[in-house]
Amino acid sequence: MDNELISKRELLQLAGISYGQLYRWKRKGLIPEAWFIRKSTFTGQETFFPRDKVLARIEKIKNMKDEDASLDEIAEAVAPNLGEVSLTEAEVRERKLVSAEALELFSAVHPGEHPLAFGEIVSLSALDTLLRTGQVSIDEGNIVLGALEDNYPEFEGRDADLLFVRRMGLSTALLVSASAEVRCDRAARVIARLNLSECAEQLRARTR
Fold first, then answer.
1. Cα–Cα distance between 134 and 7 in angstroms, integer?
2. pLDDT, tens digit, for every residue of 27-73?
3. 87-96 — which CB contacts under 8 Å span 24+ positions?
4. In whole angstroms, what is the distance from residue 162 CA to residue 169 CA?
5. pTM listed for this prediction
6. How far, in Å, CA of 93 to CA of 68, rounded?
7. CB atoms within 10 A of CB 52
């Protein structure tokens, strides 16, 4: 079995939570539905989760509950509502949410000042991460930005990864569900895989 996944039974034992708690947190949006992965095993269909993500999320939920946070307060902290934040480019720049390079690339595609929705800021933050780490060039940044603008709205509120793939000098970017396994031919390399939900969570506190 994939070592990056954890079965529901093992999760309940390791995290020390009940079946009821797990599904109550799911209904509340504290644990994304996309993390409940159904797979066939020799005993039939079983539910698995991305191990590191779900254990980290449950630890965070339990810590907040120990601090007497309500489920609504926890949901607000761990499951950001992408629709309620809008900032101008100047505000994004002043708060240093993304680098000048990422903003310049965006402005070249969209000249003129206009408000940025939270989803657009998340996209710029993901682009910024790839630029700062040197995983993509400025020219390749345009490919990344295009893929995010075309596809991120469809993944809004879901757990998704941004992939950047290079093959024989040609590059492409795509969005996939975070639990999706990706296989390429031997000539292709996945240069970067970035979780957009984590980008959104990191930005959430900084945009308040």
1. 36
2. 888 888 778 888 888 878 899 998 988 999 999 999 999 999 888 88
3. 87/115, 87/116, 87/121, 87/207, 88/113, 88/114, 88/115, 88/116, 89/113, 89/114, 89/116, 92/116, 92/121, 92/124, 95/206, 95/207
4. 19
5. 0.67
6. 35
7. 10
